[in-house]
Each structure stands twice: as C-alpha cells, then as structure tokens.
Amino acid sequence: MSKQEEAGLILKLYELRRDETMRKARDWFFLDFAPESVADFNRAMLSEHSGHLRMVMSYWDMAAALVNHGAISPELFNDRNGEHLSVYAKLEPILPDIRAAIGPQFLGSLEKLVDATPNGRERLLAIRQRTRTVRTQLAASRQNGPDQS
Questions:
Q1: Domain span at residue 92?
Q2: What totals of helices (H) and strands (E) does the chain contain, helices first?
Q3: Are 17 and 26 in contact (CB under 8 A)?
Q4: Are 38 and 98 in contact (CB under 8 A)?
Q5: Is the distance from CB of 10 to CB of 80 less than 8 angstroms?
Q6: Is residue 134 part of a domain?
Q7: pLDDT one-digit tens code per residue, 19-42
Q8: Would 148 be classed as within a structural domain?
C-alpha cells in the first residue's frame, strides 16, 4: 500500500468519525456509558443505545483490523488516533465476561492493536485513572449545582 493510499484511509476514518450519528454514539459512549459489569453492558445492548454501543465498538475494531492487516501502519494510526485506547480501556475490565457470553473473538482486532502499541497496556491504566478522576469531578459539580461565583 502506498503512503498516499494509507493517508486516504486515515482521512476516511476521520471522515467517518465526523458523521452525525457516529458523533452521537461516541458522545454517549464516553459521557454516559460506564459499565462495571457484563450486566451493565447487556443493559446497554438492550437499550435505545444499543446502536450507539455497537457502532463505537465495531468502528474501532474495524479500524484496528486495518492496522493489524497492514492497510495502515501502526505508527501513522497511533500518531493520529488515541480514542481506540479509551474504548478498549473502558471495556477491558469486563471483557472476559463479555467474551464468555458472545465469543472469544469479540474486540480481538482492537486487543491485538493495543498489545502491539508501545506502552499500550500502561496507557490503558492511565486512561482509566483519568476517566475515574473526571467522573468524580463531574459528579461533584453536579451535586454542588451551577457555579455561583
């Protein structure tokens, strides 16, 4: 694959992320979806957000497959993306239970890419910690109400 074709794929992935439905799905996934168990995951899969959840997961697993199969170099992909790590970080703690229910291949391409990413597993830990901090801050601000200053 030429560098120009690779660049075209990166731009196409970016264009797909800008789709209105995909933006809504990503917003929901990152702002509202906080699964702590496979039951939480299953509730989301059976909710009005099922399409959002499936869209985000399948998008990033597909993008990872493009990298894993050489259509996009890992270096270029990781230079331009980080959201895939956040998606995997959110699901990794419950992934064994999801795979037990759905199948061992679930998010396999994404996991393979994470493992091939320099410091990938360490980055997941940092992402999860940052997410916990942000969620704690958001919860505190919601309890305190709007800023009165």
A1: 3-143
A2: 9, 0
A3: yes
A4: yes
A5: yes
A6: yes
A7: 999 999 999 999 999 999 999 999
A8: no
Would the pTM of this model clear 0.85, i.e. be above it? yes
First to last CA, the chain: 56
User: Does residue 149 form part of some domain?
Assistant: no
- 8 Å CB contact between 100 and 39: no
DSSP string, 118-129: TTHHHHHHHHHH
Q: How confident is the model at residue 142 (pLDDT cuts 50, 70, 90)?
A: confident
Residue recorded with tokens 């209105």: 20
Residue 149 has pLDDT above 50, yes or no: no
Whether 93 is in a domain gets the answer: yes
Average pLDDT of the segment spanning 13-19: 96
Give the closest residue to 23 by CA, choosing from 4, 31, 131: 31
- Distance CA(92)–CA(65), nearest Å, equals 18
Tokens of 130: 């940052």
Q: Taking residues 66-75, report their average pLDDT.
A: 96
Q: What percent of the chain has pLDDT over 90?
A: 85
Q: Which helix (H) or strand (E) holds 78?
A: helix 74-80
